[in-house]
Amino acid sequence: MQAEKARNNKKLNLLKSKIMEPIINSQLPEFKVQAFQNGSFKTVSNEDVKGKWAIFFFYPADFTFVCPTELVDIAEKYDQFQAMGVEVYSVSTDSHFVHKAWHDASESIRKIKYPMLADPTGVLSRAFGVMIEDEGMAYRGTFLVNPEGKIKIAEIQDNNIGRNADELLRKVEAAQFVATHDGEVCPAKWKKGSATLKPSIDLVGKI
């Protein structure tokens, strides 16, 4: 009887360990990491993010293949993100020294102006739930944090699937719109300037 109870408890604990806690509307974790930006090393912490919109753009590793195409895609939209009051932070488990070496070696990576965060201990990757423990690197995770420090967008995908900065830009515009227009929501494929919806009982069954 005791043995069976122990087995059931073990199964229950295993099940609990696999249940993912919702990350949407959770608070940005405390952190302090090194970064490389515009030819210099700097320290970035959660204090630097307070009061601002921020994107955390996780990728597996420097000196790889899909990653530079994504980072350059974001770099080409960086001015637009900045104009919207959004800071972009790319994150990998490489050190800040490796970020600099990649920047110096790659013409593509030299286009990047946003901070490249170093997460060699995996503290950020684990906090955002994207760490691949067996490989010591992160999945492709994209997270938008609002000025109150709450995560409003969270997407994680396998490392052989690249992302699209245009789609991210659209989603950030939607997140900023609903943050400043109480009672309105953005429907599918919404773009800035398009019509929104105002949920009410009158709309039930009519969309």
UniProtKB/TrEMBL annotation:
Entry keyword Cytoplasm: yes
Primary subcellular site in the record, as a coarse category: cytoplasm
Keywords linked to the UniProt accession: Antioxidant, Cytoplasm, Disulfide bond, Oxidoreductase, Peroxidase, Redox-active center
A GO CC term attached to the entry: cytosol
Pfam families found in the cross-reference section: 1-cysPrx_C, AhpC-TSA
Quaternary structure and partners: Homodimer; disulfide-linked, upon oxidation. 5 homodimers assemble to form a ring-like decamer.
Subcellular location, record wording: Cytoplasm
EC top class named in words: oxidoreductase
Originating species: Bacteroides fluxus YIT 12057
SUPFAM superfamilies: Thioredoxin-like (SSF52833)
InterPro entries: AhpC (IPR017559), AhpC/TSA (IPR000866), Peroxiredoxin (IPR050217), Peroxiredoxin_AhpC-typ (IPR024706), Peroxiredoxin_C (IPR019479), Thioredoxin-like_sf (IPR036249), Thioredoxin_domain (IPR013766)
Function description: Thiol-specific peroxidase that catalyzes the reduction of hydrogen peroxide and organic hydroperoxides to water and alcohols, respectively. Plays a role in cell protection against oxidative stress by detoxifying peroxides.
Active site: 67
Biological process annotations from GO: cell redox homeostasis; cellular response to stress; hydrogen peroxide catabolic process; response to oxidative stress
Name of the featured protein: Alkyl hydroperoxide reductase C
One MF annotation (Gene Ontology) recorded for this entry: NADH-dependent peroxiredoxin activity
Reactions catalysed according to its record: a hydroperoxide + NADH + H(+) = an alcohol + NAD(+) + H2O
